[in-house]
Amino acid sequence: RAAPATGPRRGRTVSAAARWREALAAWAIPPTILEAAPVSPFGFPTEIFVSRAERARDDDPSAVVARAALGDGGSVLDVGAGGGAASLPLAPPATRLVAVDPSRELLDAFLRGADARGVGAAAVEGAWPDVASATEVCDVVVCHHVLYNVADLAPFLAALTTHARRRVVVEVTDRHPLAWMNDLWSSLHGVSRPDRPCAADAVAVAAEIGIEVQREDWVRRAAAGGYARREDAVALIRRRLCVGPERDGEIERFLGDRLRQDDGLWNAGPRETQIATLRWEP
Asked: Which of 56, 63, 196, 247 could covalently link to 85 via disulfide, CB atoms 3.0 to 4.6 Å apart?
């Protein structure tokens, strides 16, 4: 269920967009921990995005509903594209792919992937919706695992809608994607972390601006992509936790069987992830 409509002060009505923004703000890393971090805890290595794009499935529910809107062909806009995991599996039938991402390195990886599939492609460097006015309208818009990085969600969703002729398909985890690490934060730092916002909160923001979302819930049973080396998977978790390599032994113990190999690649995280596919027509 969505969060209640009242804020901390009794009687104060809070919009769904404000609740989303406040819930995301609660994820801020305590300043003393952030300042002591050996490296920035934010972002992902390019390797993980490329690996996910290479192993992305074309029969996941999100791909199925996007392909249904394409029919025999059409163009796809991939917002927050990374390596193209959301859009590359759609070609064919997609005949043109357009990627938006702040990372030039990831856009170059996306373009290589599109070229390997023999599909025409273009890349727009920048953050959404800042670059929306410089981005072409496409038949289908896809946006996978981006929303939890967006504080001001309403204009983000509105810009997705205005750039789709046929359908918007958004994929998110049911809960905040880092909520599974809450026990690690408690064990290493003695810090309690939140578990909101969630997919239902995103749907509430969409409804608030007049978007009627259809939601499909499903389970992703193993991570798509990963690292060739075990220590690289541990290093990502160490980075997220703002600690140095001297804590790797503790991290591995706390991870337990959540540190594993899937199809020959190392991952750290839950074996099953609850996913929500959100779709709507413009």
From this structure: 56
The two beta strands, 138-144 and 74-79, are parallel
Residue 54's pLDDT band, with cuts at 50, 70 and 90, is confident
* CA gap 110, 22 in Å, rounded: 33
Indicate whether 53 pLDDT > 90: no
Quote the distance between the C-alpha of residue 236 and its chain's center.
16
**Residue predicted with more confidence, 224 or 248:** 248
Rounded Cα distance, 34 and 55, in Å: 33
**Which amino acid is present at 72?**
D
Separation of alpha carbons 247 and 240, rounded Å: 12
Q: What are the tens digits of pLDDT across the range 145-193?
A: 999 999 999 999 999 999 999 999 999 999 999 999 999 999 999 999 9
Q: Give the C-alpha separation, 231 to 220, whole Å.
A: 24
Burial (CB < 10 A; 0-12, 13-18, 19+), residue 168, is buried
For residues 99-108, average pLDDT: 96
User: How many helical (H) and strand (E) elements, i.e. helices and strands, does the chain have?
Assistant: 10, 9
With 60 as the cut, is the pLDDT of residue 224 above it? Answer: no
**Which residues are CB-neighbours of 277 under 8 A, at least 6 positions away?**
61, 62, 65, 169, 170, 171, 215, 216, 217, 218
Under 8 Å between Cβ of 20 and 201: yes
CB 249 within 8 A of CB 223: no
